[in-house]
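Complex record, three chains
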Amino acid sequence: MTTTIKVADTPARETPGETSRVSKLPNKLLRMNWTGGGFGWIWLFLVMVPIYWIVITSFKTQANYFVTNTFAPPSHLTFENYKTVIDNEIARYFLNSVIVTAGAVVPAVIISFMAAYAIIRGIGSRWLRWMNNMFLMGLAIPLQAVIIPIYLIIIRLKLYDSLLALILPSIAFAIPLSVLVLSNFIRDVPRELFESMHMDGATEWGILWRLTFPLTRPALVTVTIYNALGIWNGFLLPLVLTQSPEKRTIPLALVNFQGQFGVDVPAITASVTLTTIPIILLYAIGRRQLLSGLTAGFGK
Amino acid sequence: MTSLAPPAARGKPSTGAGGRSGVAWMALPALLMFLAFGLVPLIGVLALSFTTWDGIGAIHASGLTSWRAALSDPGLLHALWVTFEIMAISWLVQTPISILIGVFLAAFKKYRGFLAVLYFVPLLLSSAAISITFKALLDPNFGIGAGFGIGVLKQDWLGDPRLAIGVLIFVVSWQYIPFHTLIYQGAVRQIPVSMYEASQIDGAGRIRQFFSITLPQIKYTIITSSTLMVVGSLTFFDLIYVLTGGGPGDSTRTLALEMYQKGFMANLMGPASVIAVILVLVGLLLAQLLRRLGGRGDESMAEGV
Amino acid sequence: MSHSNLSRRNFLGLAVGTAGAAALAACGTSGPSTASGSSKTAAGYWSLSGPPGQPIRQAAVDRFNKANPSTKITATFFQNDAYKQKIKTAIGAGQAPTMIWGWGGGGLKAYVDANQVVDLTDWFGQNAAVKQKLLPSSFGAATVNGKIYAIPIETVQPIVLFYNKKVFDAVGVQPPQSYGDILDLIPKFNAKGIAPFSLGGQSRWTNMMWLEFLLDRQAGPDAFNNVFAGKANAWSDPSVLEMLTKVQDLVKAKAFIKGFSSITADSNADQALLYTGKAAMMVHGSWSYGIQQANGGDFVKSGGLGWMNFPGIDGGKGDPTDTVGNPGQYLSISSKSSAADQAVAKKFFSTTLIDDAEKAGWVKSGGVPVLTDSASLFTGDDAQYLKDMSAIASGAKVFAQSWDQALSPTVAETLLDNIAKLFQLQVSPQQWVDSMNGVIGQ
C-alpha cells in the first residue's frame, strides 16, 4: 500500500486503488518549504525565459533578428520560418527520430533488464561475473573514438544509410549504464521473494517478469527516459552512418539550417518548436503513468 | 517504502543458490549486441592507440609513440582536471536543487499538473536546440544583457574563462535538473506520512525532518541519480562543443573535447585513441566506486561479483 | 497484481510491435549508398549546404545530368563542420565520394600523401583550354609537390577590411590609410562606446586573419613561406615576435568588441555588430558583403558599407597590395573511385564547371568567380564591390592562402589553439613562437 507524503491532499487520482490518507496537519505543512518553493519559482522563471525566447524568435525574420531586441516580440510577425521548416520535410525527420529512439530504447532496456537479472541471480557463475565487468568497460566509451570501426562494421553488414544502422550501435551503447543501474536495483530485492516463487514452481523467466519486473519499474522508467534522451539527441551516429535526406533525424535537420556562412536562427527555433510540441503533448498525457511508474508498488 | 529500491523489508540480498543454471542465457542478447558494436570497436580503438594514423592514409604500427606523445602533453592533465571539475560541480549544483524541487513538487498541489509539464520542457528540447538557444541568449552584445538592459547581465558569459565553466554547468543543469527532479519526486512521494507524523510528535522541526527522514529514505535514489549524472558527464560533448568549443582558450576543454580535437581536427588518431582508452578506464574506475556505494555493500561483494 | 500484469503485457506488446515496426521501417536501404563513389550507377559529389552556394552547385549538377543522360552525378550537401567530419570518416573508411570538395592547401596535401586523390597534372596538360579559363593564382593551393591534384572552382575570396561609413561620419573620422591610423582610431571609437573592430573570436580563424595581415605588411611573405617550407625554427624570425606583440597590444587597447572570444563567425553575430553600428570596422572574408546585404536591411543599399584592402604599416617591408584568403575552392577526384566515375567527373570539370551559367551564378551570389573574364558580368548594385574585389585579387602580387588551410591539419590545429590563447593573453609571444616551432613540418 503506497502512502503519500506530508500534504493535505492525497494523489488519490494519480494512483488508483490506493487508500486515501488525509493529513491532519494542513496549516503547518502549507507554511512549509519556503526553500523548496522559492527555488521552484525561481527555477520556473529560468525555464520560461529561454522557452519564451525560442517561441518568439521563430516568428522573426532572419534579417530582423539581430536588429531588434532579442526579447522583444517580433515587429513583423512572420510564418515563413514555419513554412520553410515544413517544406523541408520536418515531419519525416521527426518520424525518423521516433523510429530510431523507440526502436533502440525498447530492446536496449529489455535485454539490459534480462542481463541485470542474470548477473544478480547467477552470482556464483564466473561467466556472468566476466560479462558484468565487460559491460562496465563500456560505460565511458567516447563515441567519437569508436565511430570509424563502427562505420566499417555497418558497411560490411550492408546497413549503411539505413535507420537500422543507427539503432544497433545505440542499443549497444545503452547497455552498460542500464545494466549497472538495473543490477544495483535488483540486488536489493530480498532473496526470500525469489525463493518463495521458486518453491511455487515458477521458472526463472516467470520470476523475471512476474516478480522482478513490477518491483524494478522505477529503475526501468528512469533508464528508459535517460536512454531515450541520449538517442533522441544523438548527432554523430546519424551524421556518419546515414546520408540521404530521407534518413535524416532531427539533430541533423537542425544543423541543416546552418548555411556555409551563417545560422538561420529563426528557422531553427521554428523547427525546435514544431518538433517539441508533439512530445510535450505526449508527456502531458502520459505524465501520470510516468509518475506512477516511478513509485514502486509491492504487494497490492 | 522507498522507491528506486525494492520496497519490502530489507532481508538478505538476493544472491546465493537457487535456480541459477537457467539464468545465464538471459544475458546473451545484451552480450552479443555489446560485443558486436561496443567491444569490437573498443578493441579497435585500443589497437589504434599503438599506431600512428592521420585518419585518411595508411595506418602505421608505432608501439608506444602515441602513448608517450599523449601522456607527455600538458593538455591531457588539464583536460582531466576540467573534466573532473565539471563533473563535481554539476553534481553539487544539480543534486541539491533537484532534491529540493522534487520535494516541493511532491507536496505542492496547486497547478501541479500544469507546473510539472512546464518544468519538464527543457528535457524535451533537443540538445542542439538548447545549445543554439543559450548561445544566442548569452551573446555578449545581443543576448540577455542587451535584452533586459541590466548592466550586470552584460557579462562576457562564455568568453571569460572564469565565467565560462559556471555558465556551462548552468546550461547542463538547466537541461537535466527536470529529469532528476522527476526521479526525486517519485521517491519522495513514497515516504510514508506516518514517519513525519511520528517525528512531529517528537518535536522535530521541518529542517530536522528533511535531514533525518527525507534524505535517508531517498538514499538509493540519490545513488542512482548520481550514477547517471556522473557517468553521463564523462562523454558529454555536443553542448560544450557548440557553446564554447572548449574555450575560451582551453578553459572548458574536457577529455572528450581534447580527444575530438586531437583526432578529428589535428588528424592525430593515435594520441586521440590513447585519450579514448583513458576515458574508458576512468569510467571503469567510477563504476567500481559507485558499485561500492550503491550495492547493499559488502554482502553482495563478498559473494564474488 | 492485476495492475502490473496488464502493464507487463502492454509493455511486451508495445516492445514487439515497436521492434517490428522499426525493423520494417529501418530496412529501407541496405548496402553502401549508391550515391557514393564505389557504385557503378552514379558518381558522387559531396559539398557544403546552405546559401549562397548550394543552389548554384545543385544547378551545375542538374545542367550536367541533363546534357549527359547516359551518366549521372548525385550531389549531397552537408553543413560546414559536419562536412569536415563526414568526409574524413568516409575517406578513412575507404568510402569517399567520387568528387571531394575542399579548400586545397594542407588538407589537400594530406589526401595526396595518403594516395586518396588523382593526379590531374597530365589531364590539365591535355586540356589546356580548361586551364586557361581559370585564374592562374588559384592553382597555387591546388598544387602539391609540383603536381596539380584539384580543379579550382567557385569563387575567389580575399580578406578585406570592412567599415561602417555611417559610424565614421557620426564620429567624424576618416577611414584608415595606414596601420598607424588604425591605432589612432581605436581610442576615438572606444570613447564613443563603439567597438573599433568586430571579431568572431571563438572561430579562431577570424583571429588568424589579423596575424596574417600584420606579418605580411611588416615583413612580406618570406617569414611565412619559411614556415610553410618546413625550415627549422622559422617562427623565430624577429618580425614574428613583433607581430605577436602588436596583436596583444591591440587586445590590451580594447581594439576588439567586448566578448569577442565567445562570438562565432557562424552565428553572424560578428556581421551584425557592423551593420547595427555597434562596431566601426571588421576584417573578414569577401563573402561578408552578401551577408551584410541579406541581413542588414538597407545598410548596404543605402551606401553604409565601405571596404578596402588592409592598409600598410609605415616602415614595413610588405607590399600593401598583397592579400590573404581563399584563392578558390577545390574539387578533387577520389583515387578509389571507378574508372567510369572518374571519367564522368572529368567531363563535369571540362564542361559544366567552366561554363557561362556557372560564372553568372557565382557573380549573382555576390562573389568573384575563379573563372577568368568575369568583369563584364559585374553590373547592377554590386558592380563596384565586385570590381574592387576582383582588382584586389588579381592585383595582388602575393595572394597567400589562409594559414590554417595552407598548413597541415595537425599544425593548423596547434596554430589556431595558440592564436586563441594569444588573444586571451594566456601565452606570451615567445611562448607562442616556441610552441609553434615545436610542430614545424609535421
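Note: The first strand of chain C starts at residue 43 and ends at 48.
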